[in-house]
Design a protein that fits this description.
This protein is of the alpha/beta class. 33% of the residues lie in helices and 23% in strands. A hairpin with a 2-residue loop joins β19 and β20. The two termini are 47 Å apart. The mean pLDDT is 88. Bound molecules: adenosine-5'-diphosphate and zinc ion (2 copies). The site of adenosine-5'-diphosphate has 16 residues, from α9.
């Protein structure tokens, strides 16, 4: 008798273990490891879904009391066993239920009915078919006559066949008639599977640049190691436009020549027609894409083509990491620093870490690339975990752009109250006169509100956490400032604590406002706006980017989504309207994010033949994020930021675990978060911040409290987390509460 270990599809920590069921004989063939099943569960034998994660022929319990599997899901995709191992690793590492982890590694779980196209062919030469037709006509077999007419009337139908659906619907031939003629040997029906292909309208082009010395050296080094059987994790740090994508494509070419497969991860937002086109241009039908804007059918078909080994390259956002390739040789992760690589649902994994783990399991190399690497990745190069390559020059002929920093405090002193500084206005006028294009960028990321002084640029921060304090309104005005790490509170000051001016308050500016101001100030300019409001729908992004790249607009106004990986040769000016806006997010990564956004924004200028200019408008021109971004001095930024992280025990030097407690009742959330702190008790080697209210105190009717735990010892933090995870399900009074964990976000 066969027994299956089943993970029940329910994310409750106390049930997070396999349950044993027997496999009825008639299901033995389909009951594979990774299969999806229906089982009776609990006292009431409720029908539940589950995944088989193991099979054996020894029962664990009394065989008479072991229940049987009810059904193996026919439409359920069977998980690869190596993906199940990866799920187990994710569960252990990120603290999630096995059920959630399995779902994460299986972005496609259900079959979507395949699309089949059928054709009817004549089995006899034309002359004989004509005779048949006459015979049928004499017998008044009108449907048969209609079908043969369909075949005879067009030369192409005899050769390529007649579309089955057309015959049934347009020619009104019943299916039984077609079957009858098939049995009599008059016609033959053939079918072929049609993949729903999201890349249908792309064209393959042959052009490829000759790699420059810097690029070639990287390709050679990695290929040499690859051929010697060495599998490693690499980071390519190359300034914007240094030709990293060309390097990826050459590496991919190398591994697929060896019969292997490659996954290319790209932030969802950068997954535009430009990127896809470049890969499709080089690899044609060997490449496919996977992303959330595809239909379920399209996604399933790409999954199937990958599983069957019919494609060699999959491009997509973080979930593409789980493409069921079994001959994986290479994982590329472009724009490695992007926040979207970290999942925000359980398990809250980081794609970089999972990529490294999957690479280890399958013997694949991992290549991370960025112009502005995350502190984590660069730090790991210093500790020797990753191997580092640096590209200092732009590929081709383009020069790095000239960056000018404009101090907005000076503008205010000169009584310029517009959002456009005088230097920026002048440069915009010049570009418009020359018919060159302009990008205006408003980095609203993390813009949760902060209090700053327009006179001196000072921002009110927490004394112990180095993040900006968030304003809280009471009775329509800001009354209180709060830190979201440690909970510290201060009253809102009436004058600037740094310079005494009264120009102190919250700062607010939206893309739509900017668009209107541009139209008012530059009346003849054609303006496009790109933000969350204008890019909804399947092709929203592409539509705007395409219009801009075809020069149907002079100025593009947008949020961070416009700085990602786009290449507009005619853009010669990029203006960042408030470079320090993102510095004031209430998160320890604010400086890093700002540096990244600014350096990437600057990288959009001057990518063609013409040189580019960049203007950073800011109240904090001396801030190391702003100053180093202006000269693309990554090293300078990295050193200073690492020192801050070291001093305040933040990643990558230390680790920070976020513990979020949820309850429908405010009181209960408060008690629970306090209780969790008690459960941790006196533990050496950790520091606890909070608990305090989460930045969003109430979300979808759940009250949220947050606590941060810092430690230099990653293993210790995992053990603390496991202890909390084990404790919660035993508490009757918190049965209706939830706790989630997030490591090093
Ligand atoms: P990155 O990914 O580092 O931003 P890309 O690979 O997008 O850089 O390259 C930037 C631009 O330079 C692209 O237009 C690309 O076609 C071009 N390019 C890349 N490598 C070369 C090369 N060796 N010679 C000429 N042009 C190149
Ligand atoms: Zn001030
Ligand atoms: Zn604080």
């Amino acid at each position: 008798m066969l027994f299956a270990e089943v993970i029940v599809d329910i994310s409750i920590k106390s049930l997070d273990r396999p349950f044993q069921y027997f496999v009825p004989q008639e299901m033995e063939e389909q009951a594979l490891v990774g299969a999806q099943v229906v089982i009776p569960f609990g006292k009431g034998n409720r029908r539940m879904k589950g995944f088989i994660i193991g099979l054996s022929d020894t029962p664990k319990y009394d065989i008479n009391r072991t229940k049987g599997i009810l059904k193996v899901e026919k439409q359920g995709v069977v998980a690869e066993s190596h993906l199940l191992s990866l799920a187990y690793w994710m569960k252990e590492n990120y603290g999630a239920s096995m059920n959630d982890a399995i779902k994460a590694v299986m972005p496609v779980r259900r079959e979507v009915k395949e699309k089949v196209e059928r054709f009817i062919f004549s089995k006899m030469p034309k002359a004989e078919l004509v005779q048949q037709r006459e015979l049928f006509e004499r017998k008044h077999n009108t449907a048969r006559v209609r079908l043969l007419d369909g075949l005879l009337q067009k030369e192409s139908a005899l050769e390529d066949g007649l579309d089955y659906d057309y015959a049934v619907k347009a020619l009104n031939v019943p299916q039984s008639v077609i079957r009858g003629l098939e049995e009599r040997g008059v016609v033959q029906v053939t079918s072929k599977q049609l993949y729903r292909n999201p890349l249908e309208n792309q064209s393959q082009s042959g052009s490829r640049p000759v790699l420059n010395g810097e690029q070639q050296a990287v390709v050679d080094a990695i290929c040499r190691e690859y051929d010697r059987g060495v599998r490693k994790d690499y980071l390519i740090h190359g300034v914007t436009g240094s030709g990293k994508t060309e390097i990826y494509m050459n590496l991919i070419e190398h591994v697929i020549e060896k019969g292997k497969q490659a996954i290319v991860l790209i932030p969802e937002i950068a997954l535009t027609f430009q990127t896809v086109n470049r890969f499709y241009g080089r690899f044609g039908a060997r490449v496919s894409i996977m992303h959330s804007r595809l239909s379920a059918g399209e996604r399933y078909d790409q999954f199937l083509r990958a599983k069957r080994g019919e494609i060699q390259i999959m491009i997509g956002p973080r979930s593409a990491l789980f493409t069921p390739f079994d001959k994986l040789g290479l994982i590329v992760m472009d724009e490695e620093h992007e926040g979207s690589y970290q999942s925000d649902t359980m398990p809250k994994y980081h794609a970089r870490e999972v990529a490294v783990q999957r690479g280890k399991m399958l013997g694949a190399s991992v290549v991370l690339g960025s112009a502005t690497p995350s502190l984590e990745a660069y730090y790991r190069c210093e500790t020797g975990e990753y191997s580092l390559f640096t590209l200092k020059h732009r590929a081709g002929n383009a020069d790095l752009p000239r960056v000018q920093i404009v101090d907005l405090r000076e503008e205010l002193k000169a009584k310029n109250y517009s959002v456009f500084s005088r230097p920026l206005q002048q440069m915009m006028e010049e570009r418009l006169a020359k018919r060159e294009q302009i990008i205006l960028f408003l980095n609203r990321r993390g813009y949760a509100g902060f209090v700053s002084c327009r006179m001196c640029g000072g921002v009110i921060q927490c004394d112990s956490c180095s993040v900006s304090l968030k304003p809280h309104e009471y009775g329509g005005r800001v009354a209180l400032l709060k830190c979201h790490y440690c909970g510290m509170e201060k009253p809102m000051p009436s004058v600037c604590p740094f310079c005494g001016s009264k120009y102190i308050g919250t700062f607010g500016l939206g893309t739509q406002q900017v668009e209107e101001m541009v139209k008012k100030r530059f009346q003849t300019a054609r303006v496009l706006r790109m933000d969350a409001d204008t890019t909804s729908g399947k092709e929203g992004h592409n539509r705007i980017l395409k219009a801009f790249s075809e020069q149907r607009a002079d100025i593009l106004v947008g949020t961070q989504m416009i700085v990602k990986g786009h290449d507009f040769p005619n853009v010669t000016l990029v203006g960042v309207l408030a470079a320090d806006l993102s510095l004031n997010a209430d998160n320890y990564r604010a400086s890093e994010r700002t540096f990244q956004l600014l350096a990437q924004a600057a990288g959009r200028a001057g990518r063609g033949e013409k040189a580019g200019d960049v203007v950073f408008q800011t109240y904090q021109p001396e801030h190391y994020s702003v100053a180093n971004a202006a000269c693309e001095n990554y090293q300078g930024f990295y050193r200073q930021e690492l020192a801050v992280r070291q001093m305040l025990h933040y990643p990558p030097i230390s680790n920070i675990l976020e513990v979020l407690s949820f309850s429908r009742e405010k009181e209960k959330a408060l008690c629970l978060s306090g209780k969790l702190k008690e459960v941790i008790g006196e533990e050496q080697g950790i520091v606890i911040l909070g608990p305090c209210d989460a930045p969003i105190v109430k979300l979808r009717d759940w009250y949220r409290r947050v606590m941060y735990i810092k430690s230099g010892d990653y293993g210790l933090l995992c053990r603390v987390r496991n202890r909390l995870e084990a404790w919660l399900p035993m508490q009757e009074e918190y049965k209706d509460c939830m706790v989630t964990f997030d490591m090093n976000r």
